[in-house]
Amino acid sequence: MKRYIRINGADNVAVALTQLKAGEEPAFEDGSSVKLTEDIPQGHKFALRSIRKGEDVIKYGFRIGHAKEDIPAGAWVHTHNVKTALGDLNSYRYNPVGKDVPKEEPGYFDGYLRKDGSAGVRNEVWIICTVGCVNSIARSLETAARKRKPEGVDEVVAFTHPYGCSQMTEDQENTRHILADLIRHPNAGGVLVLGLGCENSRISVLKDYIGEYDPQRVRFLQCQDVEDEQEEGGRILDELMAYAASFRRQKISTEKLIVGLKCGGSDGLSGITANPTVGAFSDLLVARGGTTILTEVPEMFGAETLLMNRCADETLFHETVDLINNFKEYFIRNGQEIYENPSPGNKDGGITTLEDKSLGCTQKSGSSLVRGVLKYGNRVKNHGLNLLSAPGNDLVASTALAAAGAQIVLFTTGRGTPFASPVPTVKIASNTKLAEKKKDWIDFNAGAIVTDDVPLPEMARRLYDKVIAVASGEKIKAEEEGFHDFAIFKQGVTM
User: pTM for this structure?
Assistant: First the structure.
């Protein structure tokens, strides 16, 4: 079992992969060693040499902050002696590096081919509320319909929310785009769009955002227009379930597979085990013609140039600059500190600054070129790696990934979480302790890179196989529990 690691030869800190005791003397491949002056918790950093006050602290080969005081060799390096070195809005220059991953023959999964050519990995019937006023009706319809669910329909799910009315400008537009995106999502074999009738985002308005649709697959019910919405809704759901049950799984190319990439509750091992595993998976899927989407823009701050310089062309570079700076301006407009991150849980796990967190977070993008940059509520158009504008909030970002077209979300975590999203959300543990403790939450253990010395390429291949299995119908833990969560990015004034 590995006990510590220096990630990059240029680093002046190393990371404890397990609890280390004062007096131990970690030794490295270049012949150097250091005697620890204090205990180092798992996932936390220690100085490989003396670091002067104001000097850069280097991890992953990049600066993660400045020393707030002189740090002796062998000392614990964390929030008490390191601060962020980031500023606010930045100017950037396009310095393209690298090349795209070599193409391979597409793989296959057993999915549901829809009439519009898209592919689903589930065959569910969804109830999409246009406004929060009908949430209780939707949940009642969901409960009743589940009792009548025919063979071939995976689940009936009501996606409730508090929006759709009393919103203004961009805030209202975001809600309409996200709802329309989910109505078109191929994981749903049938969709009931449930409205009230007097809301801002009523059905007649939302239809303009949905565009063309299959009338057998998408049905509408405006509750104020009927005498008994429960009876009418139940009848429509029976017809939608019968239609959805007519679909069967079939062999589909990975060129139609879209996977969202997200992390939350990260720890000091996330950027060493789970996130690099997801990045290597992303390269495997992209090589086979598939698509991945990286989001949570605030957790790109400090590592954004790594993504900018992997943009396939200068237009995408400028779109990525806007992605970053527009999100910073959103913080500034609302009078918030841009770099008020990491969270308390992140810090407990060994993440010290936002740069530290971001350099670990962006490991999920792998090495392929950026082929698309999406605004919040946009749907993916380009194969390969895409960047999506959304906040770091787990539920909001995962919902945004689903709305962008992801049929599956990969969620890495060092602390653990039971949450779900509109699509299967595979929980990937960064450490074996978490995977063993929370077996009802965790679907895949990337911590075996440390505990079992599993090489990263092998771990990525295992994750690829897991994703193909999930795409072909294998349930993940949150699905077994019946969890389906949904959250829209709230911006602006509520009237």
Answer: 0.94
